[in-house]
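Cross-posting from the chemistry board since nobody answered there.

I work mostly on the small-molecule side, so proteins are not my area. We synthesized NAP and want a rough idea of how it might sit in this target. Sequence and SMILES are below. Is it possible to get a predicted 3D structure of the two together?
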Amino acid sequence: MSLLNHRAVIVGGTSGIGLAVAKSFLDLGARVIVASRSQDKVDAAIMELGQEAQGHALDFRDEAGTKRLFENVGPFDHLVVTAAGDSAMAPFEALSADEARATFDSKFWGQYLTVKAALPFIRKSGSITLTSGAFNLRPAPGSSTMSAINSAVDGLVRGLAVDLAPIRVNAVSPGVVDTPFFGGMDAASREAMFQAIAQTLLLKRIAKPEELAEAYAYLAKNSNTTGTVLQVEGGALLS
Ligand SMILES: NC(=O)c1ccc[n+]([C@@H]2O[C@H](COP(=O)([O-])OP(=O)(O)OC[C@H]3O[C@@H](n4cnc5c(N)ncnc54)[C@H](OP(=O)(O)O)[C@@H]3O)[C@@H](O)[C@H]2O)c1
C-alpha cells in the first residue's frame, strides 16, 4: 500500500489508460480524483471506481478552467495526465498545419497547462507523470506530427525534472494499447488492425491498459526516478 492516503489527480482518468491508472492507484491506497471533458464519462468512471473516487469535468486546453480545478482540489501528491484528444495520423502532405496545431494544443499544450496549473498544489515529495507515445522514438508512416508531439513531451519531462526538483517528473510512452481510443472503428476493422500491429511487435500482442497502469504506479511510487520516459510498447522499438 505504498500510495496509502496519497492524493492523486488523473486528468484523462475516465477512460482507457487513465481509468486503469485510477483503479491501480485506488488499489494501492491512494485517494483519486479523475477529470475529463465529458460529465457522462466522469459519472461512469465514478460508478466504476466507487464512491471513494471523485470526478470533475475539465477540458485541459482551458487554462482558466484547469487553474480553477486545482484551486478547488488543494494540496495533493501525484499528478498523472493521460488526456489526449484527437490523433493527427495522416501523411505529411495530407495533414493541414491547422490540424497539426490543434493536436499540439491538445496533447502537448494540454499537458503543459495542466502542469502549470497544478504545480502550486503538488507536494515537494510528490510526482508528475505525463504521457508520450512510442512514435517518440519510432515513427510509423503518417505519424510525423504525433512523433513531434511525443518528442516534445519527452523534452518537457527532462526539462521539468531539472526545474521542479525535488518534485519528480516522468512520462510513460505507450505503444498500441486496446482502449476506447479506437472506439470509433468498427469491431472487425479494429481487430484486424490490432492483429496486423501485433505481428510487428516482439511480444506479438497488443497491450492492455492495466499493463500501462503498472508503469504509472511505479513512477508515482519510486522515490528515486525522475526525468525518465518509460517505454511500455511490447518491443516495438526493437522489432
Ligand atoms: N491507446 C493507444 O494505443 C495509445 C498509444 C500511444 C499513446 N497513447 C496515449 O495514451 C494516452 C491515453 O490514451 P487512451 O488510449 O487511454 O485514450 P482514451 O481511452 O481515449 O482516453 C483519453 C481520455 O482523455 C480524455 N480527454 C480527451 N481530450 C481531453 C481534453 N481536451 N481535456 C480533458 N480530458 C480529455 C477523455 O475523456 P473526455 O472525452 O471526457 O474528455 C478520456 O478520458 C494519450 O495521451 C494517448 O496519446 C495511447
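Reply from a structural biologist on the board:
Welcome over. Reading the output above for you: Residues 11-12, 14-18, 36-38, 41, 58-61, 82-85, 106-107, 110, 131, 133, 174, 176-177, 179-181 surround NAP (CB under 6 Å). The mean pLDDT is 97. Happy to explain the C-alpha cell format if needed.
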